[in-house]
Design a protein that fits this description.
mainly alpha
Length: about 220
């Protein structure tokens, strides 16, 4: 019995460390993006870059596509370097929100996003319900809002943007719960510490997208 109890204790400790490492990387990545975004805006670099800003706006998508094809066999160190470079580039892209929304509404929406994200992740970690089937539905929905967002770049429809934001909040809240449960399941199966940084990237993207959707809905413009 003592051997079983010891193994259970070691597993619980390993899982806690894994989840804590994942959340720490998620928080650190958000911190990097926030600092880079503010510095880019406050120093005037946002305006000085001119049309070069489009490169930073599109770069995160290109980096994620590259990661999805090439990053599955990267070492933990390579994953970590990619993650923090990605969050810095994303920070430059996010600097535009300071030119569009008031500082008060950005802070307000950030705290709303944090509470929503924390609740969804806690649910994903503690629920006994298998969220696997929900994940497939959410991925389809994610593809749908990406396509709709691209179309709306040309249409510039406020009604479509409102609908995209509402659906996006639901999708990214659901993905946060799903990714958290998936991270826990993967640790159970493989006990691979490198997965912490992989899931940190997923949670980071969920948080950023949820924040942007809520900002569209709740943010006050300058």
């Amino acid at each position: 019995m003592s051997t079983i109890a010891g193994a259970r204790t070691a597993y619980d400790e390993g899982l806690r460390n894994f989840m804590l490492n994942m959340y720490n990387h998620t928080a650190a990545g958000l911190g990097v993006s926030g600092v880079v975004a503010w510095v880019t805006y406050s120093t005037g670099a946002l305006y000085a870059m001119g049309s070069l800003m489009w490169l930073f706006m599109l770069a995160p998508l290109g980096m994620i596509l590259y990661y999805s094809f090439a990053g599955q066999n990267w070492s933990k160190d390579a994953l970590t370097k990619f993650y923090y470079i990605f969050t810095a580039v994303m920070g430059v892209s996010l600097s535009t929100i300071f030119a569009v929304y008031t500082a008060y509404s950005i802070v307000q929406v950030f705290f709303v996003t944090s509470a929503t994200f924390a609740g969804a992740s806690l649910y994903g970690y503690t629920t006994k319900k298998d969220l696997t089937s929900m994940g497939s539905f959410l991925i389809v929905g994610l593809i749908g809002i990406i396509i709709a967002s691209v179309v709306n770049i040309f249409l510039q429809s406020s009604g479509m943007q409102f609908a995209i934001s509402i659906i996006g909040v639901i999708i990214f809240t659901g993905l946060t719960a799903w990714d958290t449960q998936n991270a826990k399941r993967m640790y159970l199966q493989y006990q691979d510490s490198s997965m912490g940084i992989r899931f940190a990237l997923s949670l980071y993207l969920n948080f950023i997208n949820l924040f942007q959707m809520l900002l569209h809905l709740m943010g006050n413009r300058e």
